[in-house]
Amino acid sequence: MMRTKAPSSFSQRVDQLRRSPAFFFKSRPIGLEVSHLANLKGVTTPDHDHHLGRIRSVFNARRGVTRRVLVLPLLVLTAFALGGCQLPTFGGFRGATTQAKTESTLWSQMVILGVGVSAIVFVLIVWAVFRYRRRDENHIPRQFSENTLLEIVYTLIPCVLVGVIFYATVIAENQIDAVVGKPAEIINVTAYRWGWSFSYASSTGVSQNVLVQTAAEPKALAQSALSSEYPQLVLPAHQTVRIVLQSTDVIHGFYIPAFNFSRYAQPGVVNTFDFTTLGTGIYRGQCAQYCGLYHAEMLFSVQVVPQGTFADWLKSHQA
Amino acid sequence: MTTIEEAPRLEETTLGPKAGGLYRRQNIFTGLGFGIFLGFVGWLTAHAFLQSSNWGTDMVVTVTMVGWVVGFNVGVGTFNAPIRWLLGHDQSYEDELYAAGVGQGSKRYYKFCTDHKVVGTQYLVLVMVMFAIGGTLAMMMRTQLITSHSSFLSPDSYNAIVSIHGMLMIIATIIMVSGPFANFIMPIMVGAKDMAFPRLNAMSFWVIASALPPMLATFVLGGVDAGWTTYAPLSIQAPAAMDAFSMTMITFVVSVTVSGVNTIVTVLTMRAKGMTLGRLPIFVWGSVVGSALSIYAMPALLLGFTSMVSDRVTGTSFFVAAGGGTGWLWENIFWIFGHPEVYIILIPPVAAMMEVASTFARKPLFGYKITIAGFVAVGMLSIMVWAHHMFTTGWAPDLAGPFMLTTELISIPTGIIFLCLIGTLWKGRIWTRLPMYFVYLFLWNFIIGGVTGIYLSDVPADQYFHGDMFVTAHFHYTLLGGAMIAATAALCYWFPKVTGKMLNERVGKVSFWMIAIGIQATYFGQFWEGFQGMPRRVAYYDPIFLHANQLTSVGAYLLMAGWLVLLYAMIHSVRNGSIAPANPWHSKTLEWMVPTPVPLVNFLVDPVVTSDPYGYGEEGSEGYVSSHSPPARSEDELVPLLSSDYPISGGDR
Lengths: 319, 653
Description:
The complex is a heterodimer.
Chain A (H helix, E strand, L loop, with lengths): L9 H10 L1 H5 L4 H12 L4 H14 L4 H20 L14 H34 L16 H30 L7 E8 L2 E6 L9 E4 L18 E5 L3 E8 L4 E5 L4 E5 L5 E6 L4 E7 L11 E7 L1 H11 L2
Parallel strand pairs in A: 1-5, 4-10
Antiparallel strand pairs in A: 1-2, 2-3, 5-8, 6-7, 6-9, 9-10
Chain B lengths: L1 H5 L21 H23 L7 H19 L3 H7 L6 H7 L16 H29 L10 H24 L1 H5 L1 H4 L8 H20 L16 H4 L3 H29 L12 H32 L13 H35 L6 H15 L17 H10 L1 H15 L8 H24 L1 H7 L3 H31 L5 H28 L13 H31 L58 H11 L8
Helix pairs in contact in B: 2-3, 3-10, 3-12, 6-7, 6-10, 6-22, 7-14, 10-12, 12-13, 13-14, 13-15, 14-15, 14-20, 15-17, 18-20, 18-21, 20-21, 21-22
């Protein structure tokens, strides 16, 4: 490795290396760059070369740069995804029920994973776009078209990722879908064009004949979902309630964004699921499945109130 | 070169005054006239005998639309040849030449023409017309949504526009590459003189062209009030427009199936000497996989819409719970078509774009075989994922896990194709012309579209996002940002071959930046709305979504303006552009080896292929032998060339 003019500073050496065809057309890994510098200083040892040779045989040094770029963020992100208890929600809802919180955590982990993988691919693209621009019209690049090891590696990595995502999701989904034996309240939700009715039907008899319905005739009211024009689904805080969902005419979607949940109300079908509420609050709800003229007006609100207030409300609404 | 110029060209044949028979008198206008006439006859008949009391009922509309479609195709000449054959007067050679457009100049573009290049050009114009209509509808929607309670559109016209925008764009994107480029370019790529079934090819175009007017007629028939997915029972109750819409879909299925069969048979039987399956350019493979998928998926759509018409017209109740049917049946049938459809849209443009990437990086396609395997795997997996559209319906909860797994698995071959694309650019010498800009835009958009797709395949996340704007943003990133941008790359790439003029790159780049920024603004805005929980297909919304919607609307205007600038660049270039050389990008595939404009039979001398299509290393050498180099080989010269490289066996050469 003789050079006619010795580079004077570290950055010059790196520069010289970068310009040398050996660097890009053989494209050595970053690890090798250091050894080159060592070579220039004349401190190379047989041991060192032997060691490098072994690394090359294991990792096929041509892809060293890519490898380095790939591994580090993955490690950081995995640590994030597994260790963090209060992950950022990336614009989603933190979740106002136990089920929604499970969903939210899964969503955050998946966004981290997704953004991590995208970032790696993006770096590869940007590198390719700028580094491999045509500079010399007559240069013909090396005509390689295969790399079996690389192809196997980038088939296996997604397989592992899919395995991880699938496992995590099945666990979360089972928690979300689980129903309790004896819910605190059973609410029959009926969707119709264009409104909702909520009828409370707990076995204790307290809530018999409590019915909340859309007050207004279908028209473009153009108000917020929290307006009293639309029906309110009142729920007790820190309780598990059961929703029994049906439709009388066409398919509707029972969608509460803050609960990270939606389910079809479909004629001829009864869908049943549980919500375990957390603290009190008021949330928007809306039909999420297109159902005709006033689809945009099929709003409702969800009000989670303390248990005492809930009992009083039930009494006051009994017919 | 001289040999080729002096060779007699079939298109310069002088035909007798009676060649072509009825074809001489037929064009798009006789089609329109006869279509309207037969539609009117259908209306009159149905009105008088079937449903005399009530104009505009389902029965009348259905019969009228059948009359229109059949009449238009009879009038334009689709059935001439089969009818003459049935009557015992088969077409003469001169008739066939006339039907291929000989001696008709630019008039042949308005006629039933069997020349695959004419059909391809007709498709290109049709697709642009459809995009123009669909884009205008999108602009109307975005104008309505620029404020939270706009009175620009009434809720019912907004709903009708949403539905037609959806399905019109789906149809347009399905045919946007398999129509223009699989017809114009693909036969030349495999070294064929035309498609395997030229008349079916022309038929596939005129049938789909006749499907467009019924779709637009829905606006005056009360509007399709059911969304593009037309979920039952809403669609069973919808106005009579739904019958016209169903006829559009049935007609469309006929066209796509016919063209799919044609593509596959062409590739299997019409390849040039030496064009083994392993030497097919990747775009040909993409077209074949796309066509195979459409042959699988389209019958489901046909079944669905036939049952739908039956439910509406004859009172059956396949999809009506009250009559013993179920809405789940429609959802299943629709998505058994609907998910492969996404890949019918995506695979051909992506394959076309890989040609672009390889040409401009001056490198062979990276991982040719694994890419083909990826396309096939995507196709096969895509027929097993449909129920991920039904995670929130409550249908078969135990199947949610398996369908989630198949959906996530599909990301593996997709990822492989994506990485092969990057591998093609890797260490290349990328000549950054306009088509490459669109390739880069595809790469960026498809990362976003692909990753958000994985979130949606995830059941819990899907319960959050199903039916809200997140889904809208996701599939626009994949179908517009992915497939349409890839198709635009292909368009810019093949523009010189199709039109004979170079595309004005300066204007093209202006449009590129407008489109690129427009897409990001529009669909980031929709992701934002989705996070906040705004449902799809709403004419009004809570003011908390206002800023996201305004971003989306402004982005959408910019996007549409970008497309218009690109359209201007194309029209301007066709009129005033510089003449394109036969092979402006120094590509190696066969379509660049034929002169521009392409002769009627494509190859004046039959091409012989001796290597794979991506040999950029051997500039000037015979990487991919064709009629041009050398132009006139004697049979004696060919024989050793043939025998050394591939076995001359099998009926397909």
